[in-house]
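re: that chain from earlier
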Amino acid sequence: MIVTLLSDLGTTDATVAACKAQLLDRVPPARIVDISHRVPNHEVSRAAYLLGSAFRSFPVGSLHIVAVGTLAGKGPHRLIYLQSQGHHFIAPDNGILPALFPGDGHPQVLLCREYERTPSFMQWISDAASVCWLIADGGELDYPSYIPSTHPDLLVAQRNAIGIACKPLCSDRYENIVLNLREDKFTEMVTGKSFSIRTFRGGNITEVSRHYNDVERGKPLCRFNSSGYLEIAVNHGSALELFGIDPTDPSALAYHTVRISLQ
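^ sequence. v structure.
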């Protein structure tokens, strides 16, 4: 059974290795694959985007454990489970799963644990491993149905009187900026209108490109990435630099809004 891990634990200490040891001990058939452990602390929007971009590449029946913002806040803390599109998901109840499948209704969400006191992180992982073993062993998940919490920072791009207000979800290693606007929503909002994205340092973007080389070297563009999200890039350049965003500050994106003007 393939088990993926996505976390904000980083890679500078032994915590990720301890998590894997716990899973391998409790779920011997597990084949563990890392999605990322460099999600900025508690950034559930980034986690939802990364997981949504990755999980469909794995075989149906795979199980995905999300450990981002696991014990953040005062609680109560919960461990929840969702089955969708043939995949299994285990996560904290902090809005990640609703963001992953917006409008899905979540008929398969189950409440696996609700902690009276804040548990240790390794206790949370141990409980996740127990659920993982039940699934791997073909056992029935006899947990109550649950309506998961939502997260206010995971809202989709908003249409307003003058255009669309978008929030950056993340930047990639090429320093492109991914916005919280999917292609279907963009088409719905923009059809029949012209649009313009002001970049401050590189002029305005007024059309959707298919490839980076559709514009001259050093010029900005927007395109839909392989996950279906609108992405701002610069051909052989940095979109972060274009918007004056410090690439060394992992939280810098959270304070920016990208506006798409419509006419």
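The radius of gyration is 20 Å.
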